[in-house]
């Protein structure tokens, strides 16, 4: 009887939460700690043919995964998606896996320019997945959504948990709570890089953000009872040093729908309350350099001087080539007339 009630309860929850952006297992939010199983049911681990996790993604419907284009730009081996995964080493009782059979990189993404614009890609799985308490799609931010400065957001992944490549890679799925940083403020950190297709999130003092290996992971914010994906992890400087750069999902609604055909994901318009303080933000002017006591230099007129050249031939560096021991023939020129004279006398005397 107890088992029947449990199965019935789970089935009822799944039936009631058939839409996107619902995480029944997300009972608490603790930034910077291990994520509880089911907290982020749309989190996808993308692994190579050897089973190594190299990027993350988000489940957006039963057939498709959203990730960063730079994760797929140089992929030459099969990619497998793991859903419902908590640990990279296992066990993962709620996990299913699917091979990726189609990769669609945004046509305007150009890795040669290395400017991170349009860094977004879609992955189609070989077969549909069934939704459970641990595997569910996330809602995507619709065109016109607003994410004002300070909007509380979350990102999860299995990447390095400290700065640098030497940082320890996490075995368990980690989550971190970061606020949105407006584009005007974020341009202070990335003046030549940031476009309107991007958004930023992170703490001003650093210490918390996505890190290497979390590329492609979803940045999500909660509106009512629904989680909405605002961004895709794209770029950053180190780990927790500056705000992280994300692809602004709402800018790509039309491309996503056209690429996926009839199986469109769930788009939700996210509306931030109040006014955005970033609209009037200007980068602070750096302080003027410290002034030091000026020094006046007196320019003296140039003086004419005579260069004395040596009259004897300077010693040369020993040459180890086949010509190194040769002597100049100039020294023998004075003996040539004497030799000719003696030879002539010998001939004349011999004839007499």
Automatic annotation (TrEMBL):
Gene3D superfamilies referenced in this protein's UniProt entry, alphabetically: Trypsin-like serine proteases
Signal peptide: 1-22
One Pfam family in the UniProt entry: Trypsin
PROSITE patterns: TRYPSIN_DOM, TRYPSIN_HIS
UniProt-listed SMART domains: Tryp_SPc
Region (Disordered): 278-313
GO molecular function terms attached to this record: serine-type endopeptidase activity
InterPro entries reported in the protein's UniProt record: Peptidase_S1_PA (IPR009003), Peptidase_S1_PA_chymotrypsin (IPR043504), Peptidase_S1A (IPR001314), Trypsin_dom (IPR001254), TRYPSIN_HIS (IPR018114)
Keyword set, alphabetical order: Disulfide bond, Glycoprotein, Hydrolase, Protease, Serine protease, Signal
BP term (GO), one: proteolysis
Domain Peptidase S1: 29-261
Compositionally biased spans, kind Low complexity: 291-313
Protein name: Prostasin
């Amino acid at each position: 009887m107890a088992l029947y009630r449990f199965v019935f309860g789970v089935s009822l929850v799944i039936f009631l939460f058939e839409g996107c952006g619902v995480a029944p297992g997300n009972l608490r939010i603790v930034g910077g700690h291990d994520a509880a199983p089911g907290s982020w049911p749309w989190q996808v681990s993308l692994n190579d043919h050897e089973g190594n996790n190299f990027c993350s993604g988000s489940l957006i419907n039963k057939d498709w995964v959203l990730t960063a284009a730079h994760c797929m730009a140089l992929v030459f081996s099969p990619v497998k998606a793991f859903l419902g995964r908590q640990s990279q080493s296992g066990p993962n009782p709620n996990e299913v896996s699917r091979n990726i059979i189609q990769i669609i990189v945004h046509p305007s993404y150009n890795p040669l320019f290395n400017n991170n614009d349009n860094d977004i890609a879609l992955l189609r799985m070989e077969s549909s997945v069934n939704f459970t308490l641990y595997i569910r799609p996330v809602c995507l931010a619709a065109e016109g959504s607003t994410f004002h400065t300070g909007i509380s957001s979350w990102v999860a992944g299995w990447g390095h948990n400290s700065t640098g490549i030497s940082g320890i890679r996490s075995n368990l799925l980690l989550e971190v709570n970061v606020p949105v940083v407006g584009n005007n403020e974020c341009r202070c950190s990335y003046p030549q890089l940031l476009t309107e297709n991007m958004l930023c999130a992170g703490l001003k003092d650093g210490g918390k953000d996505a890190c290497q290996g979390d590329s492609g992971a979803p940045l999500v914010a909660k509106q009512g009872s629904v989680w909405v994906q605002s961004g895709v992890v794209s770029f950053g400087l180190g780990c927790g040093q500056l705000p992280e750069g994300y692809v602004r999902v709402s800018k790509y609604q039309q491309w996503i729908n056209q690429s996926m055909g009839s199986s469109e994901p769930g788009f939700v318009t996210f509306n931030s309350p109040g006014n955005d303080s970033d609209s009037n933000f200007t980068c602070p002017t750096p302080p003027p350099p410290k002034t030091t006591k000026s020094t006046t230099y007196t320019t003296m007129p140039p003086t004419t001087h005579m260069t004395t050249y040596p009259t004897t031939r300077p010693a040369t560096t020993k040459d180890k080539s086949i010509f190194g021991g040769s002597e100049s023939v100039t020294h023998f020129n004075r003996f040539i007339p004497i030799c000719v004279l003696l030879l002539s006398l010998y001939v004349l005397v011999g004839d007499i």
